[in-house]
Amino acid sequence: MLYGIGCDLCEIAHLEKSLTGAHAAAFIRRVYGEAERAALSLDEPLPAGRSAAHRLASAAANFAAKEAFLKAAGTGLREPFSLCEIEAVRLESGAPSYHFSGQTADWMQAHGLAARLSLSHEGGMALAFCTLETL
């Protein structure tokens, strides 16, 4: 049974400022989990060109995935959730999926929920759509 749905848009250029600004390292640690940071090489400087554009679009899609989850949960960003505990990862097939840790994983288990995720980016925007379903 459907528990909640959420969607979010993220402007890639706006996120780029957060990832390259003076407080980028703190922002990255607060928002992105370890698996996301590794997959997107967020702890390394962004190179110029197509590679950087793809990394930025993926980082924006991951950010939108976090916001979409919070909307589906119906809580917004408050306890027990932490953005870095809500990770958007890619399966071997390339399909996006959520990975939860810490109190967020505990909340999902306590509520008996499974999450589904769809991501897209085009024209300077990234989109995420999340559904939460009872197991």
Automatic annotation (TrEMBL):
Keyword terms of this UniProt record: Cytoplasm, Fatty acid biosynthesis, Fatty acid metabolism, Lipid biosynthesis, Lipid metabolism, Magnesium, Metal-binding, Transferase
Gene Ontology biological process: fatty acid biosynthetic process
Catalytic activity: apo-[ACP] + CoA = holo-[ACP] + adenosine 3',5'-bisphosphate + H(+)
SUPFAM superfamilies, sorted: 4'-phosphopantetheinyl transferase (SSF56214)
E.C. designation(s): 2.7.8.7
GO molecular function list: holo-[acyl-carrier-protein] synthase activity; magnesium ion binding
Residues that coordinate or bind Mg(2+): 8, 67
Chief localization: cytoplasm
GO CC, one annotated term: cytoplasm
Domain (4'-phosphopantetheinyl transferase): residue spans on this chain: 4-112
Gene3D superfamilies assigned to the protein according to its UniProt record, in alphabetical order: 4'-phosphopantetheinyl transferase domain (3.90.470.20)
Pfam families linked to this entry: ACPS
Cofactor requirements of the protein: Mg(2+)
KW Cytoplasm (keyword) present: yes
EC supergroup of this enzyme: transferase
Keyword Protease part of the UniProt annotation: no
Location in or out of the cell: Cytoplasm
HAMAP family, sorted: AcpS
Protein family membership: Belongs to the P-Pant transferase superfamily. AcpS family.
Function statement: Transfers the 4'-phosphopantetheine moiety from coenzyme A to a Ser of acyl-carrier-protein.
Name by which UniProt lists this protein: Holo-[acyl-carrier-protein] synthase
Organism: Faecalibacterium taiwanense
